[in-house]
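Subject: sequence -> structure tokens, single chain

Hey, anyone have a minute? Need the predicted structure for the following. Not urgent.
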Amino acid sequence: MDSHKIKEIEQEKEFLEELNSLYEKLNIKNSNLLSSLNQEIRTPLVLIKSYTDMLLDGQFGTITQIQRDKLILMSKSIDSLIQSVLDVNKQRFNNS
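Reply:
Had a minute. Here:
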């Protein structure tokens, strides 16, 4: 192998090492971002879900059927959002 080819291979190796290093840094930042978003989104959703359930249970007084129907719809939507957040978190850990 001539020296030009060897130098070219070494440059490609350095380039790939830099790319790999950048990928690892971005992966860590992505993981940190997802972790923060997970906590920032899930916490208020769980709180809203708890109060919605308490309203449905009549802990704050009676509600009309229309209110009950809307709260049930809201509760299902919150459950779906919480599950989506959990799914993203689970997928993140499966990919790491």
